[in-house]
Amino acid sequence: MVQQIDPHPGEILMDPACGTGGFLTCAMRHMRDNYVKRPEDEALMQASRRFKYVAVAGPDRQ
């Protein structure tokens, strides 16, 4: 499913049936595997408030 959606860093991804967060976890892994190429990219992804608090959203997170 995540490959079909192909989320990119900076996009908002919401899972209305969040449950255990498996889909969102896979989406984060997909973004890291496909768009983080250098140690600086990883550091930026980890430090980004937008990534941590906006890009990962379930209905109870809003």
UniProtKB/TrEMBL annotation:
Residues 1-38 form the DNA methylase adenine-specific domain. Gene3D superfamilies: Vaccinia Virus protein VP39. Keywords: Methyltransferase, Transferase. GO terms for biological process: methylation. InterPro entries: DNA_methylase_A-5, SAM-dependent_MTases_sf. One of its GO terms (molecular function) is N-methyltransferase activity. Belongs to the N(4)/N(6)-methyltransferase family. This is N-6 DNA Methylase. It comes from Puniceibacterium sediminis.
